[in-house]
Each structure stands twice: as C-alpha cells, then as structure tokens.
Amino acid sequence: MSVPQHPEKLSQSSLLNAKDVIAQNSKLTDLEKVPMAAILTYQPNLIKAVSKQYRLKKIDGLYGDVHWLDKKKSGIVVASNFGIGAPVASVVLENLIALGVKRFINIGTAGSISTELEIGDLVVCSKALRDEGTSHHYLPAAEYANPSEDLKTAVIASLDSHGYAHNAGPTWTTDAPYRETKSEIIHYRDKGILTVEMEAAALFAIGQFRQVEVAAAFAVSDVADENGWRFDTGIRSTHEGLINLFEAAVDTLT
Description:
The chain is α/β, with parallel strands linked by helices. It has helices spanning about 20-25, 25-30, 45-55, 85-100, 150-160, 180-190, 200-210, 235-254, and strands at about 35-40, 55-60, 65-70, 75-80, 105-110, 120-130, 145, 165-175, 195, 215-225, 230. Helices cover about 35% and strands about 25% of the residues. It is globular and about 55 Å long.
C-alpha cells in the first residue's frame, strides 16, 4: 500500500484551498499590507524571547499565532503556537501562502542521528527524507523533498556573516517520533542523514507544489544512536541555538 492510496489525485485540483478559507474572513481580506516572508517556529521559549527583542503585532483570524515583526523588519511575519508535525505545519504554510507570502524559513529543534553532532549544534537542511505522509499528497513518490536552493544558500550566508558555526545536510522527516528504531537510525546515518524531525519534507513539498521558497534550519535538542537517547535537559544550548537561527532568518528575509 502506498500513499496516497488514490494516486490519481496528484494530477487533479483540490476541492478546497486555503484561499477559499482566507476569502471568508474579512479580518484577513482587509489587511493593509501583504506579508512577503514568514518564519515558522515551534518552541514557546523562542517566541517568548523574540517578543522581548521585537515589537510584535498579531494578525487575527489565522490558525495558531501569527505576528508581524516591528516596522524595522516590515514584511516579515512569525508563526508560532500551532503545534508540531507535518499536517498542522502544512495548514499554517498553506494559509500564509494564500495571504501572499513567498519566502519561508522553518526553524525548530531536531534530533541528531549523526556521530558528528552534539546538543546545541545548528544544522541547515539540504534535503528531507519523505518518511511522513503529507508530502506524498503534493508530489509524486521520491525519496527526498528539497528546499529552495537560493534561500538555503542565503541562510547559510547569514549564519556565516554572524559567525555562527553550523552544519548542512539531510534530515529524516517522520510522523512517528516514538517509533524511531535502532535499525532505522543506523540505516539513515549510513546514508549521510544528520537529523530527524517532523515537518521539513512536507514543507519543502508544498513549497515546490505552490512555487514558493522554503528553507529549514534546526538546533539539535537530543541525540539518538545505538546506545540510546540523550536529551538537552538544561535546554540552554538548544535555546541559544534557536535564537541564533531566528536572528539569521530575519536577516535573510529582510
């Protein structure tokens, strides 16, 4: 059995689109300006830190919380507090695309399956293994989904300009974090995959399908290998990494 179970859908139009939903909400259709870029975030502590550095203004009527950054960063919105996983992230992405957003940077935590990464390290995603379901409803079967090459390169350049050490490499996107097995970790590590997370493949697939730019970067929050699992119990190094990624993302999109 493959996903989607009715593959003919890939050549057909959707019955319902995000634009249809947006059109029903006067709060969204009457926006004074259209956001041109967005940063997707997942960790509450990150958006709390961002709110201390930037003056945020909420856009009502969207799923999750979506805020404008202050006027100095005009045109950028930040999405947060919408949950985790590919299906919910895809809804947020589709809604923002329907508003007119063209460039997206996804920032979150990821687990390391590489012997070269430690908790707190930064990783720019070069491609995402499609081991989730959402991407397969947008693109034909393939092993990987890819980010925008231009936007990915710009994120790397921004991290370099700030002097933030980082890595670049593939991620494994899964829907089932509590079903990651030792054999999978060994197999994917041997393929050169660095991290595991829950959204990137779907977001890249939607970006390609909708013809918008999407990139992703992660701060390593935990490490999984043959010997078990280690988590960042202090959170400090991961949190600092997320703040650095956010700063680089803002500079990239400005």
